[in-house]
Design goal:
2 strands, 69% helix, mainly alpha, Fumarate Reductase Cytochrome B subunit, single chain
């Protein structure tokens, strides 16, 4: 697997982690929204377990992605792209990425804390029991951690939509090729 970046584009590892995390986030968010109002049933319990497994997987992928990002600097934006961006867009670009990384970690950690405080341990894929890192406290779970997890999850979804909208703007309006930096084939069709 090629781990080096070509001029202006991300390497295979960064691209793979980007899209794998994107798919996992969409799946976990969709299941989370769907299962929220389901009545108590075996299906709801299965979905909650799957959602927790996905959350821990997202947390692990996020840590891996952050470590990769710290040790492998992203390719710089092309001078033409930078010069065409108003200063507020450059700031939004960097701030959005920083917030996304924070939420990649914050959402699953808040969910894990909620599960621990509610007294429902996380057993990753039904095999690996993970430690409860918050003591059982039903009030904390219900009044603080559950709303925190939900708020962070919706903030992540909104920020991800903003990220997608910006990528599409660069692709279809600015036509500056920025989108292709993170696309697996990396060549426009």
């Amino acid at each position: 697997m090629n781990t080096r970046t070509d001029a202006g584009s991300y390497g295979a590892v960064a691209i793979g982690l980007h899209w794998l995390l994107a798919i996992a986030l969409v799946g976990a968010f969709s299941v989370g929204v769907y299962m929220h109002d389901l009545p108590f049933s075996p299906q709801r319990l299965r979905l909650f377990n799957w959602h927790k497994w996905a959350g821990i997987t997202i947390l692990a992928l996020s840590v891996l992605r952050l470590l990769w990002r710290v040790t492998h600097r992203p390719p710089p934006l092309a001078p033409a792209v930078l010069n065409a961006m108003p200063p507020w867009q450059r700031h939004a670009h960097y701030a959005t990425h920083a917030l996304l990384y924070g939420l990649f970690l914050g959402v699953p950690l808040a969910g894990w804390a909620y599960s621990s405080a509610a007294g429902f341990p996380v057993v990753w894929f039904g095999v690996l029991p993970l430690p409860d890192w918050v003591a059982v406290d039903k009030a904390l779970a219900t009044d603080v951690l559950k709303p925190l997890h939900q708020t962070l999850a919706f903030a992540l979804a909104a920020l991800a939509l903003l990220h997608v909208a910006a990528a599409l703007k660069h692709q279809w309006i600015d036509r500056d090729g920025l989108f292709w930096r993170i696309w697996p084939q990396r060549t426009p069709r």
